[in-house]
Give the backbone structure.
Amino acid sequence: MAMALSACGSEAPLDCAKADAAFSACFDENAHRSLDERFETCILHSRQLLLSGVWVTDFEWNQFHEDVDRSQKGGWDESHLRFGENLPQLAGPGLRDVDTGDGAAITRNTFVGRRRLCDPYPDFDRLTVDRVVSWQVLARGEEGAITYGPNASQARSAP
């Protein structure tokens, strides 16, 4: 299915196998850059999109729960407290505008960002945040307040 996509509006079909094969060399050539800059440079991304959802962070944990039909209703449920594998992380320069404070945070965000079109690390999905349109902290807690894993019987929620 990815082969049917076109990169950045080009006429040529997207060849993810070729792009992913070139990733290692590109990553090594850009060793002088930050990790985020290397991923940004070496992985093909979509055009900019308007995205919204709930971003959950705690210690080294970072998951983005994208709105699908919830954004139409404007509501917020607690789906972010259920463990989800392969949910994307957020990265990029636009996140500097979001102040989640120290410790755990649940934040509703709307931002202009890009999806990876090809990815040599499919189990490590990231959305690039270029510009934050709006954000609101929904909950905060001390470090470890909302961290959980796939074997946890129940998530601990931030106060």
